[in-house]
Amino acid sequence: MKVAVLKGGRSLERGVSLRSGARVEDALERLGHEVLPIDVGPDLVKRLVAERPDVAFVAMHGVGGEDGTVQELLEILGVPFTGPSAAACARCMDKVQAKDAIEDASRETPGGLKTPHWFAFNQTAFREFGAADALGRLEETLGFPLVVKPSRGGSSLGVRFARSPGEVPQALVSAFSYDDRVLLERFVDGRELAVSVLGDEPLPVVEAILLEGDRYDFEARYEIGRTRFDVPADLTTDEHRAVIDAALGTYRALGCTGFARIDLILGEGGPWLLEANAIPGLTDTSLLPQAAEAAGLSFEQLVERILDLALTPQGVS
Amino acid sequence: MAEVPEPTHRRRSHAGTRDLERYAGLFAERTGVMRSSAMRDLMAITARPEVISLAGGLPDTSTFPPQSFAAQMTRIAQESAAKALQYGPTEGFEETKDCILEVMGAEGMLPDPDDIIVTTGGQQAIDLVCKTLIDPGDVVICEAPTYPGAIPTLCSYQADVVQVECDEDGMQVEVLEQLLADLRAEGRRPKFIYSVPSFQNPAGVTMSLQRRQRLVELARSQELLVVEDNPYGLLRYGGEPMPPLYQLDGGDFVIYLGTFSKILSPGIRLGWAVAPPPVMEKIVLGKQAADLCTSTLTQYFVREYFAERRWQRYVDDLVEIYRRRRDTMVEALRDNFPAEATWTEPEGGLFIWATLPDYIDTSDLLAKALRADVAFVPGQAAYVDGRGSHSMRLNFSGVDEDEIREGVRRIGKVIAEQVDLYGALTGEQPMPEPRQESAPNVLPFRKAGEA
Q1: Which chain A residues are within 8 Å of B38, Cβ to Cβ?
Q2: Are residues A102 and A228 in the same domain?
Q3: Which of A15, A132, A299 is closest, CB to CB, to B425?
Q4: Is A168 found in the same domain as A39?
Q5: Is the minimum CB–CB distance between A178 and chain B shorter than 8 Å?
Q6: What is the ipTM, given to two decimal places?
Q7: Exposed, middle or buried by CB within 10 Å (0-12, 13-18, 19+), for B58?
Q8: Architecture category of domain B27-62+314-426 in CATH
Q9: How many Å apart are CA B107 and CA B71, to the nearest integer?
């Protein structure tokens, strides 16, 4: 089968994407597929039309590759592709949209879906409508520390913690460097968990345990030896059920198909949903491959399964 | 869009998670301090052709005449092919050392050729000095900010790096004196003091004569080694030449590092170290272990090039080009950076160091700047402790004047947006018009004693 591997692009996570892509290409070659690596640029459509791949493996992260843009093009060209649909990607990428969808679905989910209390602003609100004057009230609601993050973006880029009111403006300036809309979110203390879903099946839960530093930031994510991963995470039966229910509920609420990774915090009152990653990392230190391995799937088997799912689309169950 | 070249062989299969953990268990302790970073990943994007990169430290090699390069390489092929393709002595060829003596002589230094070792770029010289002198936990003192490329080297030998603030006259030697006294009180003795005294990378500042003299005296009286890294000494665009520390000291307590990278080519990977004989003996052993010898071929190239006796004229040409580029950048900064920003106006070298209001984090700013297709080095890269997050290093040697103007304009625009936003968030007044005239001696450094 001729498989186009879409990677790179212009996103800030280009480096991560190139690593994911290289690893996928290896696996595809070993599986005997014809691999067509594409560093995504202005010639993307031309190349896809000329080369006519049977399927596209999207190994892109961040804006452009993970937000539905590339997926939209693939849908127009009629090239089947891995991972969620364009619409689902767009929902996952934008934390505001994702939170809205999760909160809507929560009403119909037994036990509900909890996401930390939050507010979102775009730059115009501050520049033109004096939103700064509302900050005090909102800080009261959220409490400190609070988390400031760009609405779109991954790998923790631009995520800042503010410990006091004085730190909020600077955190906002940082987060606004990555996107025109930012979220202020209540900080939830607890265990950092990730549930990867493949097709409709949850894979074993991964827990990220920091060996140094105080948060799971970009460096901790991509450096071998900075973080320990427990797979499967050591959870009680009740905790496990709650975590899986929350993750699957979110996966469905966002309309994901193929695969996705749901990040959550297991804190006071159960699992708190942080975000969904439509194209989870596939690098050596990424969580989805680790979860698959714990489920007995080698990286090749994982890649093969992802391809199968792309070629036999599943509805949202 | 550039394609990643396709391998002609099958790549080694990647390891599974368990294998990775197994490898991680085998890693040397020092790999724990070898850091990759979000910044490094962001820098990967600067390679895009549409990005104006003021991030590199690149000399402009397009100015080197290709005919001259071709003639020299042809001569080597015709006259010395067998030798140029063979191993050479670990210390380097005597003929290469003659070229080094010429370069050092141009700055008034007269080392003994036996004290010189030819290295694979100046970077290897730094590595070999560290390898020779540092045990894990040893104190090494360097400038704040310091050469970003020295930090991974120092860290990989597990040095305890202590940084001494610079001002417009380079490293604050008074502060260094106090630090040495404090360390002595703790029973600790630094293995060496690393300094780029002339046109410092990244700050662009030059150490004053008085401080140079004091530093050399300190080294002598306390029997401490100073490692003087001087890649840019000959690239002076204004002011009076300063004697290198090596010249002031005579080479007893100063290890000198030089390179052909900035006066000829970084691609030939030729640098050197000059050290007192007992230190040199160990450095040579270290070099042997590292790579046996420096490229013979490029040493032959340098020999041929110097035989034409035009190297100084080429440096003069570079000085003219870089002076104009520096002036262009300084002017562009005045026109485009907010009044709160400060920057150095270097008398030579390749870099300007700019410091922004303290609510702007330059790593985040880089993400925004990359969307505007322009890049710089965030200041944090020049510190071991996370400081420098409001500063940036700007290179003016690697791109032409139009690109410098446009690059600085783009950076100025993203900064202005941050400044406005911060004003809106805090109710502080947005910045006034950009300053119209230069403010001499305004530098992004706090003077000693100021909070």
Answers
A1: 155, 157, 217-219
A2: yes
A3: A132
A4: no
A5: yes
A6: 0.79
A7: middle
A8: Alpha-Beta Complex (3.90)
A9: 29
Residue B23 Cα to chain centre, angstroms: 33
Q: Mean of the pLDDT values across residues B181-204? A: 96
In a shared domain, residues A140 and A211: no
Contact A285 B20 (CB under 8 A): yes
Whether A31 has its CB under 8 Å from any CB of chain B: the answer is no
Kindly state whether residues A218 and A169 are assigned to the same domain: no
- Residue A317 in domain: no
Compute φ and ψ for A58, nearest 5 degrees: -90, 110
* The residue type at A225: G
Query: Does residue A302 lie within any of the structural domains?
Result: no
A283 plus A230 within the same structural domain: yes
- Write out the catalytic residue numbers of A: 13, 155, 222, 261, 263, 275, 277, 281
Quote the pLDDT of residue B34. 61
Q: Does the domain at residues B82-307 carry the CATH identifier 3.40.640.10?
A: yes
Cα–Cα distance between B195 and B211 in angstroms, integer? 12
- The DSSP output letter for A42 is T
Q: Give the chain A residue nearest B34 (alpha carbons).
A: A223
- Report helix, strand or coil for A266: strand
Q: Which residue of B has its CA nearest to A8?
A: B45
Nearest C-alpha in A relative to B5: A37
Alpha-carbon distance A236 to nearest alpha carbon in chain B (angstroms): 24
Q: Establish if A311 belongs to a structural domain.
A: no
The residue out of A153, A169, A186 marking a domain boundary is: A186
For an interface test with A, the pick among B35, B41, B371 (most A C-beta atoms closer than 10 Å) comes out as: B41
Q: Give the mutation candidate from A11, A177, A179, A282 for the B interface (greatest B CB count, under 10 A).
A: A177
A77 pLDDT more than 90: yes
Distance from CA of B17 to the nearest CA of A (A): 6
| B332-343: pLDDT as tens digits | 999 999 999 999
pLDDT tens by residue, A215-270:
555 555 555 556 788 999 999 999 999 999 999 999 999 999 999 999 999 998 89
B429 HSE (CA, 13 A, CB side): 6
Query: Is there a single domain that holds both residue A98 and residue A234?
Result: yes
CATH, residue A205: 3.30.470.20
Mutate to test the interface with B, among A24, A135, A149, A173 (most CBs of B within 10 A): A173
Domain of A144 in residue numbering reads as 118-186
Q: Are A231 and B426 inside 8 Å of each other by CB?
A: no
Q: How many angstroms separate the CA atoms of B346 and B233, rounded?
A: 12
A contacts of B28 (beta carbons < 8 Å): none
Among partner residues A10, A22, A225, which is closest to B27 by beta-carbon distance?
A225
Tokens of B321: 């080009």
Number of domains in chain A: 3
Query: Does one domain contain both A36 and A52?
Result: yes
Quote the minimal CA–CA distance from A256 to chain B in Å.
Answer: 26
The CATH number linked to A149 is: 3.30.1490.20
